[in-house]
Design brief:
18% strand; Nucleotidyltransferase, domain 5; magnesium ion binding; six-stranded mixed β-sheet; Aliphatic_acid_kin_short-chain; ATP binding; alpha/beta; nucleotide-binding; EC 2.7.2.1; 403 residues
């Protein structure tokens, strides 16, 4: 079965085509500047170079057509025709309380995703555009599956997702902790189980998805029991440009003193805060490291705040789960920034956590970086959300065919 995985943004669209018989990536790429002019970057694993061209894309349907055209291209393509695509899997950011698992898309699913737009207006709207574009270009007979960022966290208990505000706001507006990056947290927890030889149902693991967007999740018995992101992806850790958790009264204070609306302040919290806001340098940790090496104290402060926040979450989740078997680092920063991994785990020997400095030198490789005698293993596991989407799509489509 060939599965096309789509991750649609407001003006971009990432894709990967999988052969699910062997889980091989046949091709992948990115459509950018949709609605402006359009640019396609495409990778065929059998070629040493990438295909990069400006391709007119007035909307996402044009982007999907560009993807299909390059996939069947005689020189750069990997399939003979669109008919060789058996199903499409879509990343959908917010499923609210409707979905605790991935699902085949039908009219009722579309309606539920639309109902969640107020919870993730930019993301869910873009995801729906991608779904509609695939239907327009590929036809209604090609099964499409929605895989939700929030679904993995639907196993949390009310004590972990209910906010201490009037309960009526939860009943009326579904204001609660939802959590995000669920597909990534689910994948690396499963990989940790395989690496350690511990059945998932017996494993206690803390998964640290650290990148421009970051979240930490406590996974017990294969289920999310707590996570750092909340009602929106703005909550939790300070991130590239997002503030993370702050005193909510700050928003009203800034509205009064800066003469801005709440919406404008939230824009600042989302796009001008985090390590970028503190450092004044960049949202990219590589740029922070360069600035730190040049003696920039604010850059050092920004990185230290981030590291301290991750450390606090690990400690609290160990307490919540009554112990931990492994801490996992994943995503761009977690997989590649050895200084972040080292600093997060420093002074945690009393908890059984100790990183081997030689093993920690490696980047982007799946491995155990703990010292041999550590009671708690520290793992680096590159995430693969697209593979999870493809696997869920295959599972659901085959189950529907067997009915």
């Amino acid at each position: 079965m060939n599965v096309l995985v789509i991750n649609a943004g407001s003006s971009s669209l990432k894709y990967q085509l999988f052969d699910m018989d062997n889980k091989a990536v046949l091709a992948k790429g990115l459509c950018e500047r949709i609605g402006i002019d359009g640019r396609l970057t495409h990778t065929n694993p059998n070629k040493s170079e990438k295909y990069c061209e400006n391709v007119p894309m007035k909307d996402h349907a044009d982007a999907i057509r560009a993807v299909i055209n390059i996939l069947v291209d005689k020189e750069w393509g990997v399939i003979e025709s669109m008919k060789e695509i058996d199903a499409v899997g879509h990343r959908v950011v917010h499923g609210g309380e409707y979905f605790a698992d991935s699902v085949i898309i039908d009219d009722s699913v579309i309606k539920a995703i639309e109902d969640c737009i107020p919870l993730a207006p930019l993301h869910n709207t873009a995801n729906l555009i991608g779904i509609d574009a695939c239907k327009d270009v590929m036809g209604a007979d090609i099964p499409q599956v929605a895989v939700f960022d929030t679904a993995f966290h639907q196993t949390m208990d009310p004590v972990d997702y209910i906010y201490s505000i009037p309960y009526d706001y939860y009943k009326k507006y579904k204001i609660r902790r939802y959590g995000f990056h669920g597909t990534s947290h689910k994948y690396v927890a499963q990989q940790a189980s395989e690496m350690l030889g511990i059945p998932l149902e017996h494993l206690r693991v803390i998964t640290c998805h650290l990148g421009n967007g970051s979240s930490v999740t406590a996974v017990k018995g294969g289920k999310s029991v707590d996570t750092s992101m909340g009602f929106t992806p703005l909550a939790g850790l300070p991130m590239g440009t997002r503030s993370g958790d702050i005193d909510p009264a700050i928003i009203n204070f800034l509205c009064e003193h800066e003469g801005k609306s709440a919406e404008e302040i939230l824009e600042v919290m989302n796009k001008e805060s985090g390590v970028y806001g503190v450092s004044g340098v960049s949202s990219d940790f590589r740029d922070l490291d360069t600035a730190i090496n040049e003696g920039n104290e604010r850059a050092k402060l920004a990185k230290d705040i981030f590291i301290n926040s991750v450390k606090k979450l690990i400690g609290s989740y160990i307490a919540e789960m009554g112990g931990v078997d492994a801490v996992v680092f994943t995503a761009g920063v977690g997989e590649n920034d050895r200084s972040v991994r080292w600093d997060v785990c420093e002074h945690m020997e009393y908890l059984g956590i100790k990183v081997d400095p030689e093993k920690n030198k490696y980047r982007g490789r799946q491995m155990d970086i703990s010292v041999d005698y550590a009671r708690v293993r520290v793992l680096v596991i590159p995430t693969n959300e697209e593979l999870v989407i493809a696997e869920d799509t295959k599972r659901l489509v085959e189950a529907a065919e067997d009915e």
